[in-house]
Amino acid sequence: MARIEEREKITGEYITPERIEEFLDNLRRKHRGESSLVNYRRNLTGFYNWLPEDKVIDGEMGNRWRRWMIDEKGFSNRTVNTQVSCLNTFLRYIGHRDWQVDEFVWEGNDVQPELSRAEYLRLLSAAKHMGKERSYLLIKTMGGAGVRVQEMPQMTAEAVNSGSVKLDSHNGQRLRIMRIPAVLREELLDYIRRQKIVSGAVFLSRDGKPLSRSAIHHYVNIVSQEAKVEPEKANPRCLWKMYQNTQDGIQASVNVLIQQTYEHMMEQEQLSIGWDA
């Protein structure tokens, strides 16, 4: 205990799961609702797991966590603000109001420009023209197959060989099985064969680790200059949104066709067994 107290005096505050539970008990005594306590526990546990191994925080740790959530995880502004608010309340409880994060991200800044399908195709064409195969495949995997940037490490050689991938995002809160489109799968199979990737993530950095969000953003952004696509649109979030819009448009067309077919069927039935037939 003496070593812990000495370290706290020098470097900051030592955080433990017990201290988080004490904080939650304090909120409970103040009659906070159970759903609110669940949110506090989830967000603070996420912060605790993110901390370095020594679990010591200082006045800069909150801002670093906030930056990580935005740059590396790609959380929405609303999610970041919620988690920062929980941390600020905890910091006030442990007597460090001076460590609170005072730079919130306002929802007005969360408006993202939309990438059109034509601009997406220009990105692919530019990457091909530049000879940047990895960037081409990254763009196609996100914009063509709908793989989110945080799911990219799960695009493995094993998944490509099998033809489908189990995508897990947001700590297991979103699970889905995605069939890899045949044309993309063929290109990926050829790529991993030439790169001699036998297992693990397909998209790797020079040190053999899965590409980070910031690295993926960088590669896509470089291609945007050649494609003459605004840099604000050349990012994983806009590629995901474009994919969703494309899917929604197709689904809407299918729904119209289904309705028209059904009405035609009823008209044919009406001719034979309608009341006035």
Structure write-up:
With 277 residues, the protein is mainly alpha-helical. The protein has helices at residues 2-11, 17-29, 34-50, 61-71, 77-93, 117-130, 133-143, 157-162, 182-194, 213-227, 236-273, and strands at 13-14, 56-57, 164-169, 174-179. The strands form 2 sheets. A two-stranded antiparallel sheet has the order 1-2. The longest helix has 38 residues, at 236-273.
Gross geometry: extended
Total number of strands:
4
Spatial ordering of strands, largest sheet: 1-2
Cα-atom radius of gyration: 25 Å
The share of residues in helices is 55-70%
Tell me the distance between the termini: 91 Å
Please identify the structural class as seen in this structure: mainly alpha
Listing every helix as H and every strand as E from the N terminus to the C terminus, the arrangement reads: HEHHEHHHHHEEHHH
The chain-level mean pLDDT equals: 86
Strand content: 5-15%
Uncertain ranges? 1-10
Q: Let me know the largest β-sheet.
A: 2 strands, antiparallel
User: How many helices in DSSP terms?
Assistant: 11
